Amino acid sequence: MTSFFRLFGFKGQEAPVAAPVDVQAADFRKTFLEEADLGQEEPVGAVDTFLEQDFVRLGRAEGYQLRDMAQFEERQALLVARFKDVVSRSLREVEESFYAVSQEVARIQEVGHAKRFYKLFQERDTLDRIRKDLLAQLDLATVHEGRIESAVLAYKAGFEEGYQQYLEEEFLFKGRHVF
Fold this sequence. Notes:
Low-confidence stretches: none
Helix content: over 70%
Distance between the termini: 78 Å
Order of helices and strands: HHHHHHH
């Protein structure tokens, strides 16, 4: 007997061989159903994709390079304009879908399919709610509020960090105050 066996009760045998697992046959959805969000998944739109960008990093880089508040205001206005462009494109897509669903609702209403009419009517109401939200976001973006507010604040914080880093480097390495 080895000392390892005495301590842990393990013999140096071969490990048991398990049967190969067929990954294709495993149903992961049922396995992890308790961890899954049972609500409806909202599709990730262009607006959400735009807002997921790292605006702090962008602001930090531009604050370090530009060091001018006039250019900061221009870049901030450009950021808001890009957001408005993304929102207007999304709004156009929603309005096209809303128009198509409205046409289908009118056609189904004449035929008299109650279940199909109810589903389409709910979809039309959802599209109308999304359309109103996008219109509100367009209006609020002008004054840097709404969903763009967090992006603008993150960009501003990053710009200030980058500018502060530039000032510290100028003072430490070149020995001069930059105001």
